[in-house]
């Protein structure tokens, strides 16, 4: 059976295990299930630990029949781990047919306070692998390589945005999804306790005490009526809040319309504002000084060197320039945070915090293809045109 397969799996991997639960078998009886459990215990050399303490004669009762069908079973290897096994005695608050089994286990657990990692990187890794972006890029035909590169870049950026939204939504749901019972109060608590007490008395009488049965049904009806009333009060409170919000919203729009009808002039000189704006963003670039000239000259030298390598490259040789994956990883890892998003709404953080092996490899291959083929993806041209305008 399934239990035997599970035990064999644990034994094969040398794992310690404790099986706790409802076996629906009592070793003190001779029914088919009982004999099967006894045979399994004997074959696997197992021990029923609740028999060792033997503090209660049964663990299940429906008011008529009593049996010991709940067990704590394991091998002799865990004798030193289990400190005690206790079948908790019946209680009026326990309306179940089974009695709880309390097991004390002595374990040494090494607690490591690990920082919670956002699973954005793993989600992005799965997207790259499932869409087979690396395989598509490596197996692409040189004739339509440009369209393939455009498609892969768009797919990658779409996956990044989708994964980041998914992680963000999960974080928001974990914050706001709280279980609460505003309708539960002391009166309901008292009715619930009395109801369970009468049910316990009725069950102990083997379902023959008509007086406790009548009391139980009356208390149950009172409990349900009170519960419905409290729920209705809570719903009315939210309805009142919604109505007040609607009233305030209408007042705000009416006030806004009245304000818009009043003609007012802007006291700020727009030309001065434009000059301040230009000075703020262009002063560092426009102003000629020794530092800017030196930086611009260094950039021109690097740019001419790179353009020379690209122009002199044989476009039929795809592997002439090889991009070091570790170098790409280092660049992505050191991307600055808080920069403006790009044309396709992708930020540095989406690359930086998703820098798995697949993303780094895909980025390196994309760079190799673009450089070796002397291509400019359509997305880059859009950026260039928008900046020119």
From TrEMBL:
InterPro entries: Endo/exonu/phosph_ase_sf
Domain of life: Eukaryota
Protein name: RNA-directed DNA polymerase from mobile element jockey-like
């Amino acid at each position: 059976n399934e239990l035997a397969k599970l035990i064999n799996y644990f034994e094969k991997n040398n794992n310690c295990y404790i099986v706790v639960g409802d076996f629906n078998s009592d070793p003190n009886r001779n029914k088919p299930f009982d004999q099967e459990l006894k045979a399994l215990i004997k074959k696997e050399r197992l021990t029923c630990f609740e028999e060792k303490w033997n503090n209660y004669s049964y663990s299940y009762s429906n008011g008529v029949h009593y049996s010991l069908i709940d067990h704590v079973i394991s091998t002799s290897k865990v004798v030193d781990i289990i400190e005690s096994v206790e079948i908790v005695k019946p209680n009026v608050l326990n309306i179940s047919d089974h009695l709880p089994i309390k097991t004390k286990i002595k374990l040494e657990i090494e607690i490591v306070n690990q920082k919670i990692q956002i699973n954005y990187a793993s989600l992005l890794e799965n997207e790259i692998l499932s869409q087979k972006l690396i395989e598509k890029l490596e197996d692409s035909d040189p004739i339509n390589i440009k369209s393939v590169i455009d498609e892969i870049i768009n797919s990658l950026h779409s996956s990044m945005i989708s994964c980041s939204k998914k992680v963000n939504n999960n974080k928001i749901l974990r914050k706001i999804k709280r279980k609460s019972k505003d309708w539960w109060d002391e009166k309901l608590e008292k009715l619930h306790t009395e109801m369970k007490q009468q049910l316990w008395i009725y069950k102990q009488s083997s379902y023959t005490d008509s007086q406790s049965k009548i009391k139980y049904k009356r208390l149950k009806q009172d409990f349900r009526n009170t519960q419905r009333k409290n729920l209705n009060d809570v719903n009315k409170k939210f309805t009142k809040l919604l109505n007040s919000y609607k009233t305030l919203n209408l007042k705000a729009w009416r006030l806004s319309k009245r304000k818009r009808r009043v003609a007012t002039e802007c006291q700020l000189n727009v030309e001065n504002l434009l000059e301040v704006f230009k000075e703020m963003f262009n002063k560092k670039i426009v102003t000629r000084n020794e530092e800017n000239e030196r930086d611009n000259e260094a950039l021109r030298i690097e740019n001419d060197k790179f353009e020379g390598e690209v122009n002199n490259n044989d476009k039929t040789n795809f592997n002439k320039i090889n991009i070091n994956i570790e170098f790409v990883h280092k660049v992505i890892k050191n991307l600055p945070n808080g920069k403006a998003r790009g044309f396709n709404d992708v930020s540095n953080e989406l690359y930086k915090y998703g820098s798995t092996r697949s993303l780094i490899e895909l980025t390196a291959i994309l760079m190799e293809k673009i450089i070796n083929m002397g291509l400019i993806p359509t997305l880059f041209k859009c950026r260039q045109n928008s900046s020119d305008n």
